[in-house]
Amino acid sequence: MDLFGDLRRMNKRQLYYQVLNFAMIVSSALMIWKGLIVITGSESPIVVVLSGSMEPAFHRGDLLFLTNFHDDPIRAGEIVVFKVEGRDIPIVHRVIKVHEKGNGNIKFLTKGDNNEVDDRGLYKEGQNWLEKKDVVGRARGFLPYVGMVTIIMNDYPKFKYALLAVMGAYVLLKRES
């Protein structure tokens, strides 16, 4: 397979068509993602479980579907995805305690099902409770192990670039029949 020979033989009109086709695929994916953000109320409506801290409920590589409606109160037993200041990657854990104050302010504590202790050691220094603003979303459904592709691509960056190159070449070289 001579990739560059195929590109040279392809006329400019076909090349423009293929580039436009690729751009439409990328823009469609972005529109779907933004639509999911609006529908679910979550800045990240789909996340991958990256550790075994929630086993047996969720395993590494499970794909979680999230919602984050602000008028829906957080309750003990719910599984939330939250971000902690100073950490880039969100954490998926279960709410174990909720403190509601008279003014409507809610604070809560989380813990991984497979962990021995609560998450106070994961929060930023001096923080003992999470607040609603820390929540990215709440788990509403999942697909088991579908996210392993994401984990493999993060663990092996060369695989990720090779896969992207193959997909890009396929879209550019695919001829409509």
From TrEMBL:
Q: InterPro entries attached here?
A: LexA/Signal_pep-like_sf (IPR036286), Pept_S26A_signal_pept_1_CS (IPR019758), Pept_S26A_signal_pept_1_Ser-AS (IPR019756), Peptidase_S24_S26A/B/C (IPR015927), Peptidase_S26 (IPR019533), Peptidase_S26B (IPR001733)
**Transmembrane stretches, by residue range?**
15-33
State its Enzyme Commission number(s). 3.4.21.89
Catalytic activity reads: Cleavage of hydrophobic, N-terminal signal or leader sequences from secreted and periplasmic proteins
Q: Name one Pfam family in it.
A: Peptidase_S24
Q: Which residues form a coiled coil?
A: none
Primary subcellular site in the record, as a coarse category: endoplasmic reticulum
Q: Which top class of enzyme applies to this chain?
A: hydrolase
Q: Which GO terms describe its cellular component?
A: signal peptidase complex
The record's subcellular locations are: Endoplasmic reticulum membrane
Q: Does the keyword Transmembrane apply?
A: yes
Q: What membrane topology is annotated for this entry? A: Single-pass type II membrane protein
A Gene Ontology MF term for this entry? signal peptidase activity
Q: Which GO terms describe its biological process?
A: signal peptide processing
Which residue ranges does the record assign to the Peptidase S24/S26A/S26B/S26C domain?
A: 38-122
Q: Which UniProt keywords apply?
A: Endoplasmic reticulum, Hydrolase, Membrane, Protease, Signal-anchor, Transmembrane, Transmembrane helix
SUPFAM superfamilies, A to Z: LexA/Signal peptidase
Note the superkingdom of the native organism.
Answer: Eukaryota
- Entries under NCBIfam families matching the protein: sigpep_I_arch (TIGR02228)
What is stated as this protein's family in its record? Belongs to the peptidase S26B family.
> What do we know about how this protein assembles, alone or with others?
Component of the signal peptidase complex paralog C (SPC-C) composed of a catalytic subunit SEC11C and three accessory subunits SPCS1, SPCS2 and SPCS3. Within the complex, interacts with SPCS2 and SPCS3. The complex induces a local thinning of the ER membrane which is used to measure the length of the signal peptide (SP) h-region of protein substrates. This ensures the selectivity of the complex towards h-regions shorter than 18-20 amino acids.
Its job:
Catalytic component of the signal peptidase complex (SPC) which catalyzes the cleavage of N-terminal signal sequences from nascent proteins as they are translocated into the lumen of the endoplasmic reticulum. Specifically cleaves N-terminal signal peptides that contain a hydrophobic alpha-helix (h-region) shorter than 18-20 amino acids.
Output this protein's name: Signal peptidase complex catalytic subunit SEC11
Instruction: Specify the taxonomic lineage.
Output: Eukaryota, Metazoa, Chordata, Craniata, Vertebrata
